[in-house]
Amino acid sequence: MLNFKQKNDHIADMIEKFKENQTKRLAQDHINLKKMNQKRELELRNMQSQLVKFNKTTKKQQNHVLAKELRLLKKTHNSKVKMLHLN
Q1: For residue 72, is it left (φ>0), alpha (ψ between -120 and 50) or beta?
Q2: d(Cα 80, Cα 78) in Å, to the nearest integer?
Q3: What one-character-per-residue DSSP string does 23-79 give?
Q4: Which residue, 66, 43, 62, 65, is CA-closest to 54?
Q5: Is the pTM of this model over 0.70?
């Protein structure tokens, strides 16, 4: 009977240790999850800011090229008008 009681106590201790380890592991997993979510949010914000910056620079470059082409078209138009003496 005493042997059975010792085994029962040993099993109960093992179960208690397992529960403690499980709760510690769960708490650590929650902490890791929070850290990962924070990193993900930071990376998303960074990506969004980079996208905005890229869009601004691309639009600026396109406007610059468009302005050059417009100046060239105006020059060629004016020279053709002068050539035809339509002034």
Answers
A1: alpha
A2: 5
A3: HHHHHHHHHHHHHHHHHHHHHHHHHHHHHHHHHHHHHHHHHHHHHHHHHHHHHHHHH
A4: 62
A5: no
Q: In whole angstroms, give the CA distance from residue 23 to residue 17.
A: 10
Which residues, including other chains, have CB under 8 Å from residue 81's CB and lie 6 or more apart? 87
Yes or no: say if 12 and 20 are a contact pair by the CB < 8 Å rule: no
In order along its 87 residues, the chain shows pLDDT tens digits of 668 888 898 999 999 999 999 999 999 999 999 999 999 999 999 999 999 999 999 999 999 999 999 999 999 998 888 888 765
What token pair was written down for 3? Answer: 């042997």
pLDDT of residue 86: 66
